[in-house]
Structure formats: structure tokens, C-alpha cells
Amino acid sequence: MAKILLKNVQALLEDGSVAEKNIAIENDKIVKIGEVDTSWVPDQVLDGKDKLAIPGFINTHTHASMTLLRSYADDMQLMDWLQNKIWPIEAKMSSNDIYWGAMLAVAEMIKTGTTTFVDMYSEMHRVAEAVEESGMRAVLSRGMIGVAPNGQEALAESKKLFRDYHQTANNRIRVMLAPHAPYTCPPAYLRQVVDSAKELGAEIHIHLSETLGEVEDCKKQYGKSPIALMEEVGVLDCGVLAAHCVHVSSEDIALMKKYNVRVAHNPGSNMKLASGISPVAKMLSAGISIGLGTDGASSNNNLDMLEEVHLVSLLHKVHHLDPLAIPALTSIKMATEYGAKVAGFDDIGVLKEGYKADITLFNMNSTQWFPRHDLLSLLVYSANSSHVDTVIIDGKIVLEKGILTIIDEERILYEANKRAQDLIRK
Ligand SMILES: CSC[C@H]1O[C@@H](n2cnc3c(O)ncnc32)[C@H](O)[C@@H]1O
Ligand SMILES: [Zn+2]
């Protein structure tokens, strides 16, 4: 039995307050926040002086192995980028490329304070391997392009991934089905995915309403918006994590609320691909769950959730000319508590007794953390992820004093770099 005590740490609590607490961890869970009984003897004590403890970040939408394509194709619009640069090179990626790309992503995410990620890509059993080995928590899905020749094979692989990995690794791994988008998956295919999701009891992860072009084409082709089309084909009945939702109307938002569609908002990627500004404030007011995501490292170009926290707050303030649009606490909750709901968990995203011990500790010994008027404000508006000191996932220390403890960073950098170079020469 492993017992860890975080002693006298500044802890961000569920109500948004920050207070000095002891946090007792036993195996994979937080067992106590506050006074710890002297009869409870820890195996390891971490000194919380000058440390801020928050729930680990939850990246609700990414394509981990795309780290290999970081800085490969920039300054392009989505469809041009996908069709002319990304899909041709992805077709050459090997299973080992996917593994080392995922390992690079996992290393980067842990070092920047993320403890859970939601992923969509191919060869996902290799991503699962990276997750198992690293101690990370993840929701994995095989992205399906629903046209011949690979549509049926992709669906079979998705079902196998679900059967092999859903709720494995002490429940650190979960699986969803992921039809890529309405423009790559025709209605007949989406209906097949819905049947499979119902048969397995799986939820659906899909890109929806990312660009104006997607919405206009969908209306032209099917006479309705992507969200309304998803209702028609039954996708919304399955439990949906929708990435982007940039161009959604009031009618779409009402449908999303009706079916409890959860949204992964990706401010960095939406800005870089010039996709637009998602109506986040409006969706939040409508009671929709919204988390934050980085999207892949080829459209961001990093997997740093604190950057997304910073961006979501600033983007929507300036968009609405309203400094109250997304306050500091809302942006942090989107990256943690709301993100947990979006990813489908009810026991992570908050520092709370009985919840999983997924915790990120920031070292506050740097200029950006002084003076200490308001620690939440410092975290959102001043700090950066190089201040991440320690990360605990499922009760295990995976980063200590900035050093990865389970995976070998030097080897990962070497392998990922070599594979990325070989890939562009193929
Ligand atoms: C078939 S696996 C997933 C697929 O999605 C591609 N992708 C990466 N970023 C985006 C995005 O912002 N919108 C749509 N599709 C995206 C990725 O390259 C894979 O091919
Ligand atoms: Zn995406």
C-alpha cells in the first residue's frame, strides 16, 4: 500500500478558494484533505512549502502522435492543411512512429501538468501502450474516415480497441468510438458507428462544426447543420464529446443541451487555423459542459494546457469586449473539473476526498509568483508551465522536481526526432 503526504501545500479547492492543507494519498485516491491523523503514517512526504496543488489538467481533445508533425506545416487553413500536407504524410506513418509520437506527447503533457488526455488517431493500440507504460490517464479512440477502402477496417479496429482496452490499467484507459467528422463520414457510415456504439455501450468522439466551410457544405449536401445531422443519424443518442463547435447556431446549442453534448474547446488551434471563435460564453450560459483541448501539436503547436487556460480567458474577453467574459476560475475549471465531465469521468478534476489522486504541483519560487495577492490569478494570468514541479497520476509520482520518473525523456527525444526525420524523407 503506497501512502504519500503532501504537507502544508497551497491547495486549489472545489469552491475556487486556495488554502494551506495537507493532502493524504493512499494508493490511487485522495483520502484526506486537512488535518491528518497521527496514526496515518505515510511512506513518502512531499514538502508543500511554496507549492500550489491543483487537479491535474485534462486535455479534452488531441492527436498525441501528431507531435511528430510539429512545425511540419504551418500557416494554412484547415482543409488545405489536412488534404495537402497532413493526410499524405500520415499515410506513411508506421506503428512505431505512432508509439514514439505518443510517447513524446505524453512526456510533454506530464511536464506541463496534464494528467489525462482524450485522443483520436490511428494504430491506437500503440498509444495505449504508451499510456500504460507512462502511468498517464487517457480516453482513446481510433479516428475513422468512413469511406472506402478503409472505413470498414477502421470500424473493426475501433471495436477491437474498445474490447481490448476500455476500463483497463486500473481504469486509467477508456475508449470511445471516433468517426472523424461529418465531411469524412457519410450518414450511412455514421449510422453503422451508432449501431456499434450502442452494441458496445461506447460514447462518441467527433470533430463538429469546426469551420464555416464545413457548416455550409453540410447544409448544401444534407439540408441541415452538422449538429442537426448528428441528431438525425442517431449520433447524439450515444453520449458525445464534440471537438471544436466553433460555428454553432442558437438552434444547434439548444440541441446540444437537449442531448448533453460535451464540448472540447481548442482556442489555440482555432486561432492558428483561423477557424473562428467558438461561442463559449453562450454555450456555458446554456448549461453545456465545455473543457479545453490543445488539438494536435501540428495545429497548436504544443500540448501545454496552461497556455490554453490563458488563451481561453483572453480570447473571449477581447471578443466580447468584456473583461468578465471568462474569469480566471472558469478557465481553470474548464481545464480541470469541467474537462473531467467532458471526458466522461466523475472521480477526477477536483481535489476532493475519495477522488483519484491526479495532482499537479507548481513551484511558486519565481518572479511570476510574486507578490502573492491571489494565487488563482497568478496561475491563470502570470505563471507558465515551466513552473510545473511535481505530477501525481493515479497516486503515482510521474514527475518529481521537473524530472520524469517513469519514462526516459532522453530516449523519447532521440527516437521521436529520428522517426520524424525519417518520415519526411519517405
Ligand atoms: C483519422 S485520425 C484523426 C485525424 O484528425 C486529423 N486532425 C487533426 N487536427 C484536426 C482538426 O483540427 N480538424 C479535423 N481533423 C484534424 C488528424 O490529422 C487525423 O488525420
Ligand atoms: Zn482534432
TrEMBL record:
Catalyzes the deamination of 5-methylthioadenosine and S-adenosyl-L-homocysteine into 5-methylthioinosine and S-inosyl-L-homocysteine, respectively. Is also able to deaminate adenosine. InterPro entries: Amidohydro-rel (IPR006680), Deaminase_MtaD/DadD (IPR023512), Metal-dep_hydrolase_composite (IPR011059), Metal_Hydrolase (IPR032466), MTA/SAH_deaminase (IPR050287). GO terms for molecular function: 5'-methylthioadenosine deaminase activity; metal ion binding; S-adenosylhomocysteine deaminase activity. This is 5-methylthioadenosine/S-adenosylhomocysteine deaminase. CDD domains: ATZ_TRZ_like. Substrate binds at E90, R142, H180, E210, D295. Its cofactor is Zn(2+). Its EC number is 3.5.4.28, 3.5.4.31. Pfam families: Amidohydro_1. Residues 53-398 form the Amidohydrolase-related domain. It catalyses: S-adenosyl-L-homocysteine + H2O + H(+) = S-inosyl-L-homocysteine + NH4(+); S-methyl-5'-thioadenosine + H2O + H(+) = S-methyl-5'-thioinosine + NH4(+). Keywords: Hydrolase, Metal-binding, Zinc. It comes from the Bacteria. Belongs to the metallo-dependent hydrolases superfamily. MTA/SAH deaminase family. Zn(2+) binds at H61, H63, H207, D295. Binds 1 zinc ion per subunit.
